[in-house]
Design brief:
Layout lengths: L1 E5 L7 H13 L4 E6 L12 E3 L4 H4 L7 E6 L3 H13 L3 E4 L5 H8 E2 L2 E2 L1 H25 L17 H4 L5 E4 L2 H10 L4 E3 L6 H9 L12 E6 L8 H10 L1 H6 E6 L7 H12 L5 E4 L4 H9 L3 E4 L10 H8 L4 E4 L13 E3 L4 H13 L1 H17 L2 H34 L7 H15 L1
Length: 437
């Protein structure tokens, strides 16, 4: 079997790192070529790398593969290009994020203006008149822009990413269930793997970090610095508890996208609360990130709302055998409770209490860390690859029915058929029965 693996592949992309680590395991089952629209520098791989763009002659060679796999995330570059390619050459879509709304909004912007009709029509198609109203009011300024609010989880636009898709892979069961309720095609939930080299590096970090020279407990948040990681709330809860603030140092490390207003707000907040020991770092290379993670006592991973399908940072943190403070939501809620310091979402009072316990109880930190590292060892690239290859066979079986359904939908759209007509229910029921066989 030949597989075209379409993905971001730049050094600062978590999806690119996922692809770099996972494709060798997929390559044990199939011939894999990595396709990317990214410009150099790219991550290194022993597999063939194909850079694509406007060359349609090159693009047509995708027809030579048995399956094309699209890795979709919530940044406009490179995922707008990847999505456009998926519309011309359908394949399996790996959904790294549950919410893709901001990516599609950015993709539909043109020359400083907005293609209102596309945005409103898509919101209406997926979420009815309520969605259309939210879209219109977001564009007019009658309400805060929904794509910049927590309410965006109600309108994820992940359905747009599955147009013409032959299958969908998620990284949590709760996300898979949402897709099954909103899309006809085959869906498989696979756990984010813990990479072998991360596990090996994490083992070298030992059971506990060396004590800081100032005697403080090291708290760390890693990954893209975004509002749903609630770093501002962490700083605030530290400031509200003088004892907790005096005993901890909080480091936030990860890529800072150009014009990241949230990062600027965090920096201003940190300056206004000098009683909190906090530093905000940008992207760090592999060696320095390893040093920072090895020096961590407690990882803070409080996602709210949960806009991702899984969490790459979570799997990396597990490998280091340190306790992880998180909310009981999304992929975090699907892991064994004894491997995480987990509290109800979004209960920050409970988060504060749990953090105080973690700071004061070294034995508790050790037990959670041991369980975390054991769990990391069970989440291998090989297991993910095996599950994925099995899913490819399922998607190929469903492909003829899904392709026919897409053709029917295209014809009905060309006829401007009213979606409220009874024929749509008949079509949905008929294809639902076919795809469930």
């Amino acid at each position: 079997m030949r597989v075209a693996w379409v993905t971001a592949f730049s050094p600062r992309s978590g999806i690119a790192e996922f692809s770099r680590q996972l494709t060798p395991a997929i390559a044990l089952h199939a011939d894999v070529d990595i396709w990317t629209p990214d410009d150099p520098p790219l991550l290194e791989s022993k597999l063939p790398i194909v850079r694509f763009g406007a060359d349609r002659q090159l693009e047509e060679t995708l027809g030579d593969y048995d399956i094309v796999v699209y890795n979709m995330g919530n940044t406009v570059h490179p995922h707008r290009t990847i999505h456009q390619l998926s519309q011309r050459h359908p394949g399996i879509v790996i959904l790294h994020d549950h919410v893709l709304h901001p990516m599609f909004v950015a993709a539909w912007l043109r020359d400083g203006g907005f293609t209102d009709s596309m945005y409103i029509s898509r919101m209406a198609a997926y979420y009815g008149e309520t969605g259309a109203c939210v879209a219109r009011e977001s564009l007019s300024g009658a309400r805060p822009r929904v794509w910049e609010s927590d309410e965006v989880v109600e309108y994820p636009l992940v359905e747009q990413a599955l147009q013409r898709a032959l299958g969908a892979v998620t990284h949590s069961q709760v996300h898979a269930q949402y897709i099954r309720e909103h899309w006809f095609g085959p869906v498989r939930a696979l756990q984010n793997p813990t990479y072998r080299d991360a596990l090996a590096t994490g083992m070298l970090a030992g059971p506990a970090p060396a004590a800081r020279s100032d005697g403080r407990i090291q708290l760390t948040t890693i990954g893209h610095v975004t509002a749903n990681k609630q770093c501002h709330r962490v700083i605030e809860l530290l400031a509200e508890d003088h004892e907790l603030a005096a005993r901890t140092h909080y480091t936030i490390v990860g890529p800072l996208d150009d014009g990241n207003a949230y990062a600027a707000e965090l920096a201003a907040l940190a300056r206004s609360l000098p009683q909190v020991s906090v530093e905000i770092l940008g992207w760090r290379g592999e060696l320095e990130l390893d040093r920072l993670m090895a020096a961590t006592d407690v990882f803070i991973n409080l996602r709210h709302p949960t806009i991702e399908s899984g969490s790459a940072s979570l799997t990396l943190e597990l490998a280091y055998g340190r306790p992880i403070l998180c909310f009981d939501a999304g992929a975090f809620g699907e892991l064994p409770p004894d491997a995480l310091a987990r509290v109800p979402a979004p209960d920050f009072d409970a988060a504060r209490s749990e953090l105080k316990r973690l700071v004061s109880d070294a034995d508790y930190r050790r037990r959670l860390g041991e369980n975390a590292r054991h769990l990391a060892g069970e989440r291998s690239e090989a297991a993910y690859a095996q599950g994925f290859i099995e899913f490819v066979a399922e998607a190929q079986r469903c492909a003829p029915a899904l392709t026919l359904l897409d053709r029917v939908a295209t014809e009905l759209g060309a006829m401007r058929a009213d979606p409220l007509l009874p024929v749509f229910d008949t079509i949905a029921n008929d294809f639902g029965r076919v795809l469930s066989l």
